[in-house]
Amino acid sequence: MRIPAVPQLVLLFFLGGVFIHFLRAGALVFYSRDMSDEKGALIAEIAFLLGGTGTVWWLGLFYVQIHLANGIAAAVLLTASLALYEWARHTIRGRRFGVALGDHVPEELCESGPYRRIRHPIYLAYQVAYLAAFVAMPHWITLGTLAASVALFTFAARSDEATIGNSALAANYTEYRQRAGMFWPKISSAAPGKSTP
Known about the structure:
With 197 residues, the protein is mainly alpha-helical. It has 6 helices and no strands.
């Protein structure tokens, strides 16, 4: 068994640890009547602990050496992921955003912070974290977890949007969708937060 160098161990700690942070911090901000009954919470636990933390630590400790350029690029992506996640999380704190794949609809739309331009910045942050793991360790397993995360969080975003589309916020959300991209900002000549004629 090889022992990874200290810089690789530090990067692995953060690459795997970010998924644990997503679970712990998310449990403090997302609303649920009964978190133990939320299928989205269970799916997140599996995706983050097995597909995120477990995969990163297992591959990084026993199979893959992280090259310097890959490690630097991964650290930049991981920092961007965590910054976006925390910005979005602090923006929605107290607004009763529901757990993914749930049926709870917040009382009002959020169009501040990263939500001004992106409808699902938290799901984007998750995907960027999986991308960071793949960049650090380009392996078929990390590619598979990245592809699975893109599929999962795209499905979750569409499910959340369908739930909102069947609520009292439907008309406002339709307008908001025209201004803000699902995962990437829409390019528009209008000022942010304003619809184009």
